[in-house]
């Protein structure tokens, strides 16, 4: 439990010091629906227990993952977050939330 707490604190400190706030525009389907998402790694803090321990993700985690889905590639490419988002437990979390792992 202590390890998870330390990882969570490091993640939050990193997210505060190096905020990854970018605008992402996603065009869904053949319609003209455009969704603007502000990518913020702190939005995924509810997923950290599942991504670090392999526990089942919470409903809030799945909701946030779906909201931040267009941001996952930027998190994977960022050395600060890539180890969390690319881990086997993160892949399990994405799968449990029915969010496809991105191909960047």
TrEMBL record:
The keyword Methyltransferase does not apply. InterPro entries: Bifun_inhib/LTP/seed_sf, Bifunc_inhib/LTP/seed_store, nsLTP2. The keyword Nucleotide-binding does not apply. Pfam families: Tryp_alpha_amyl. Residues 39-104 form the Bifunctional inhibitor/plant lipid transfer protein/seed storage helical domain. Residues 1-24 form the signal peptide. Keywords: Lipid-binding, Signal, Transport. Gene3D superfamilies: Plant lipid-transfer and hydrophobic proteins. PANTHER family: BIFUNCTIONAL INHIBITOR/LIPID-TRANSFER PROTEIN/SEED STORAGE 2S ALBUMIN SUPERFAMILY PROTEIN, BIFUNCTIONAL INHIBITOR_LIPID-TRANSFER PROTEIN_SEED STORAGE 2S ALBUMIN SUPERFAMILY PROTEIN. This is Probable non-specific lipid-transfer protein AKCS9.
């Amino acid at each position: 439990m202590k390890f998870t707490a330390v990882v969570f604190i490091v993640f939050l400190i990193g997210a505060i010091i190096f905020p990854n706030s970018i605008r992402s525009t996603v065009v869904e389907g053949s319609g003209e629906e455009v969704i603007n998402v502000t990518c913020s790694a702190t939005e995924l803090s509810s997923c950290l227990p599942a991504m670090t321990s392999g526990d089942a993700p919470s409903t809030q985690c799945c909701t946030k993952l779906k909201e931040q889905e267009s941001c996952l590639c930027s998190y994977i490419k960022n050395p600060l977050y890539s180890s969390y988002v690319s881990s086997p437990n993160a892949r399990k979390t994405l799968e449990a939330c029915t969010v496809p792992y991105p191909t960047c």
